[in-house]
Design brief:
single chain; 287 residues; alpha/beta; 434 Repressor (Amino-terminal Domain); Endonuclease, Chain A; 7-stranded mixed beta sheet; 12 helices; 51% helix; globular
């Protein structure tokens, strides 16, 4: 990477590459076949999917056609990301709509080697059961039709495969007790959700802690956030902040460091993993 290449363009390349790989694999298309469609080698497809080369609009258009992406909005979003991937600089916000910022975040999430987050309103998306996710989506999108609700839930469940994949990241989540007590769906949905959190928390790559009410005020006063770390040494850590109509991606070293310190304090002050599971069991029994 040259000095003129910013972390922003590298992240965008990783985002677009991961989305292209997901589309190709979902269609059962080999890298060789994909390369043939754009008059290139299998190795070039591999480099594109790893975000190691720049992107030509014509290549992206041909690949999207091969992968069956016909929706103009989706094509435009990916082609826009391809243009941005070739421009230095860092983005600060994306429209809070599907498939815009959500696909962008999924790409970041999928490229990360370490995901650390604090949640206060909901159970984290990577931990949600289908029933809980359905309740969250229908309450958050009351005017959405059934098919849109199901599509959003399916996307959320698809993300969760990351935690058991060969490239599974280290996942450290601190959940405020408020999120665990706030009911979504009926009692059985919540019992199933709490048990699912317990089950996932026992995976070797997952560390789950609960910030209990009894602790009182704590370091997570600014609300939910996610810190992403990537395996590439030249890629900075990124803090993701979801807002009502946009999402922020922070990569300035001092800003990221502040969030890192908050996570350290939440981890130190929250319940240890074993005690967190004990609390989850008690909450499930109370329902």
């Amino acid at each position: 990477m040259t000095a003129s290449e910013s972390s922003g363009s590298v992240v965008r390349r990783i985002l677009l590459g991961s989305q292209l790989r997901r589309l190709r694999e979902s269609r059962g298309i080999t890298r060789e076949a994909a390369g043939y469609s754009i008059r290139a080698s299998e190795s070039k497809i591999s480099r594109m999917e790893l975000g190691r080369v720049s992107f030509k609009a014509r290549d992206i258009e041909d690949l999207l056609t091969l992968y069956g992406v016909v929706d103009e909005a989706e094509r435009a979003a990916l082609l826009g990301l391809a243009r941005e991937a070739n421009v230095t600089g860092w983005w600060h916000s994306y429209g809070d709509v599907l498939p815009g910022w959500f696909q962008t975040y999924v790409g970041l999430e999928g490229a990360a080697s370490h995901i650390a987050c604090y949640e206060v309103q909901f159970v984290h998306g990577l931990l949600q059961t289908e029933g809980y996710a359905h309740a969250v989506v229908t309450r958050g999108q009351p005017t959405a039709c059934d098919s849109e609700v199901e599509r959003r839930v399916a996307l959320r469940l698809e993300r969760q495969k990351l935690l058991v994949s060969e490239r599974a990241p280290e996942f450290h989540v601190v959940i405020d007790e408020a999120a665990l007590r706030r009911p979504y769906g009926g009692p059985q949905v919540m019992r199933n959700q709490l048990q699912h959190i317990i089950d996932v928390s026992e995976q070797s790559n997952v560390t789950l802690q609960v910030m209990p009410f009894e602790f009182g005020g704590h370091a997570g006063e600014s609300g939910a956030f996610t810190l992403l770390r990537f395996p590439e040494s030249d890629l900075p850590d990124v803090v993701y902040l979801e807002q009502l109509t946009s999402a922020l991606y922070l990569d300035k070293r001092d800003e990221v460091a502040q969030y890192g310190r908050v996570l350290d304090r939440l981890s130190a002050d929250g319940l240890a993993p074993a005690k967190s599971r004990d609390l989850l069991r008690r909450l499930a029994n109370e329902i």
